[in-house]
Amino acid sequence: MASLREKYGFDPERPTVLSFGVQSPRKSVDLLIDGFAKANLNDNWQLVLAGSESNEYPGYQQQLREQATEFEVDLTITGFVDAGDIRSLFEQAEFHAQTPRIQPGASATLSLGIGWEVPCMVTHVGAAPERVTDGETGILVEPKPKAVAKGFQQLADPKLREHIRKQLGAVKEEWGWGRIADKHNKIYRSVV
User: Fold this and answer.
1) Does Transferase appear among the keywords (predicted)?
2) Which of 35, 38, 126, 132 is deepest in the core (most CB within 10 A)?
3) Structural domain boundaries of the chain?
4) Nearest to 93 by CA among 18, 32, 40, 2
C-alpha cells in the first residue's frame, strides 16, 4: 500500500493542519489560507486540503494554489481521497480546521474529527458552537483572518492539543452509540 506521501503528495512526518471535504467558496478555504499565513507558524508546518474540487466551481483549487503561493503558505491539495485513507489523514494531522463564513447546518467532517479525537478549529457559525466548547473540545474562532490566525497559534501548542484530545475522548464516550442506545432504552422502558 502506498504511503500518504506517495499517494497525496505531502509529508506525514511534518506538523500538519488538515482541512477535509469538497473545496468550494462556500467553505471559505481562502480564509483558512489567509489565517494560516498570518499565524506565522514555523516553517515546518504544512496545510493539507484533502478532497475534490466542487463541480460547481471549476478552477477553485487553482485559485487556492495561487493564493497560497502569494501568501507563501506550504499547501498541498490532495484531490480525491480514498475512503480507506480518510482516518489515516485525520490521525496524522495535529489538528483539523474548517473556516466557513456561513454554514447552514452540522458538519460531517467535524463529527469525523471528534469521533477520532482529533483537535479542531472551527468558525463560530452554524452548528459548530453546539459541538465544540472553546478551549475544551476544540477552538472556536470568528470567521476573520486574524481570529483564524490566533486559532492556529493556539493549536500549535502541543499541551492544548493533548488537553483537547482527552476532552474529546470523554465526549466520544458520552455521544457513543452504546450510550445513546442505553438512553433510548430507558425512555422506552419508562413509557411501557
Assistant:
1) yes
2) 35
3) 4-191
4) 18
* 92 Cα distance to chain centroid: 12
Distance separating alpha carbons of residues 123 and 100, to the nearest angstrom: 6
**Three-class SS of residue 99?**
coil
Digit-by-digit pLDDT tens for the chain (192 residues) are: 468 878 888 888 889 999 999 999 989 999 999 999 999 987 789 999 999 999 999 999 999 999 999 999 999 999 999 999 999 999 989 999 999 988 766 788 888 888 899 999 999 998 888 889 999 999 999 999 999 999 999 999 999 999 999 999 887 776 666 666 777 678 878 887
Q: Please give the CATH topology (third level) of the domain spanning 4-191.
A: Rossmann fold (3.40.50)
| 112 contact partners, CB below 8 Å, separation of at least 6 | 20, 86, 90
**Phi, psi torsion values for 80, nearest 5 degrees:** -55, 140
